[in-house]
Automatic annotation (TrEMBL):
It catalyses: 2 GTP = 3',3'-c-di-GMP + 2 diphosphate. Keywords: Membrane, Transmembrane, Transmembrane helix. Signal peptide: none annotated. SMART domains: GGDEF. The keyword Membrane applies. It is an enzyme of class 2 (transferase). Residues 261-396 form the GGDEF domain. This is diguanylate cyclase. SUPFAM superfamilies: Nucleotide cyclase (SSF55073). Its EC number is 2.7.7.65. The chain crosses the membrane at residues 38-58, 64-83, 95-114, 145-165, 171-190. It holds the Pfam family GGDEF.
């Protein structure tokens, strides 16, 4: 958890780190734009409405027209600036745009003193309300508001002394009231600024932790996936391994039995693989196995299952396939392997590799996958015994 007391400046209420402060201001930009626009529209409306009291104080005179002209300029400027803030106010880059209406409004309030010197007490109240509104109603940075409020207070006191002939005691009384209003507004806004930033810091930290957590979860899931694949795959050929084959083939076999669909299986064994190893080396033998795995996998349908059963032996499960349909598939694999041209180290073309395949179809009463594999093995043995390089189907009579 971040150390909050050191995070925010005690006097300005801003983050000490400029990067973080800029990030915060960017984050609250839309809200500030919207609230500022509404607040300035409201402030301009109220300031404009005081034209009614102008009429009662000064009557139809030159001062009234001057007051009306000044109010129109201030209201118009504030409305224009409210629109500009809504459109361009960024709060982090164009701070002056947010400060400008404060200074315009403050100038308008100060200018009332020479034009309506008789209503100083009402104006004093208006200044206090305006000061509080600067601090609490219109979103702005504390430093910006404090400067504008200082300008309003000093300007008003000076105007009162010069144009309303206020005594020094009255000016002092008004100065104390303004100091009080400023102190209350400053402390309240400082508290709000600090609280909002602390809240933002906590939220960002939580968001960072969540993101980190999500990253870790994704990493963990991908590791689990990798581990699962490693546990299910044969490291050399990338095909399913024996254990995974038994699990999946069993469920395929059971599904086929449930709907009484045909189910075939064949065992494929590389001929004279020992000789290949002994003649060309173990790594060439590995390449032969990988190539056979590749061509076999490419020749099968997506819902067939091929696995390396062990050594140079492969097994294929063919759901929804009868023996008569499995036979051409096995012959296709047999041909594809025979057509393989496996170059040796140095580019020399290798001798043809052949395979023997034993095929079997599950009987309707058969419910044991191991027995089915055993029968396919027997057909394979027959093929090996009869000279290899062939496809042998296990007929009922051979079972
Ligand atoms: N290169 C390589 N050889 C392997 C691998 N697994 C098993 N072998 C070898 O495969 C050979 C299998 O030999 P055998 O069981 O006698 O079979 P074969 O020579 O193919 O003879 P037949 O099957 O009767 O045609 C052995 O020499 C094993 O060492 C492997 O992953 N890579």
């Amino acid at each position: 958890m971040a150390k909050m007391p050191h995070l925010v400046h005690w006097l300005t209420g801003q983050f000490r780190e400029t990067e973080r402060e800029a990030w915060y201001r960017r984050a609250i930009k839309p809200r500030v734009r919207c609230e500022s626009r509404l607040a300035w529209m409201l402030a301009a409306l109220i300031f404009g409405m005081f034209s009614i009291s102008d009429y009662f104080y000064v009557g139809q005179s030159r001062e009234l027209y001057l007051l009306l002209a000044m109010r129109v300029v201030v209201v118009g400027s504030c409305l224009f600036l409210a629109w500009a803030i809504g459109r361009w106010g960024s709060y982090s880059q164009r701070l002056w745009l947010h400060a400008l209406p404060l200074w315009v409004m403050a100038t308008g309030i100060i200018l009332i003193v020479p034009l309506r010197p008789d209503s100083l007490s009402t104006q004093m109240m208006a200044v206090i309300v305006a000061t509080m509104a600067f601090y609490l109603l219109i979103p702005n940075l504390l430093t910006v508001v404090a400067m504008a409020s200082l300008y309003l207070g000093i300007g008003f006191l000076c105007a009162s002394a010069i144009f309303a002939d206020s005594s020094s005691v009255d000016v002092l009384r008004m100065a104390l009231l303004l100091i009080m209003a400023n102190a209350v507004g400053f402390c309240t806004l400082l508290r709000v600024e600090r609280l909002q930033r602390k809240q933002f810091a906590i939220l960002s930290e939580e968001r960072d932790q969540n993101r980190q957590l999500l990253r870790e979860m994704a990493h963990r899931q991908s590791l689990e996936g990798q581990l699962r694949r490693l546990a299910e795959r044969d490291a050399l050929t990338g095909l399913a391994n024996r254990r995974h084959f038994m699990k999946r083939a069993q469920s395929m076999f059971e599904s086929a039995r449930e709907v009484q669909a045909p189910f075939s299986l064949f065992m494929l064994d590389v001929d004279h693989f020992k000789t290949i190893n002994d003649t060309w080396g173990h790594s060439h033998g590995d390449r032969v196995l990988m190539e056979i795995a590749r061509v076999c996998a490419e020749s099968l349908r997506s819902h067939d299952l091929i696995a390396r059963f062990g050594g140079e032996e492969f097994v294929v499960a063919l759901p929804d396939t009868s023996l008569s349909d499995a036979l051409p598939v096995a012959q296709r694999l047999h041909r594809a392997v025979a057509d393989l041209a496996l170059p040796f180290e140095g580019g020399e073309r290798g001798a043809a590799v052949t395979v023997t395949i034993g095929i079997v179809e599950a009987r309707p009463d058969e419910d044991n996958l191991e027995v089915l594999i055993h029968r396919a093995d027997k057909a394979l043995y027959v093929g090996k015994r009869d000279g290899r390089d062939q496809v042998v189907a296990c007929r009922e009579s051979q079972a």
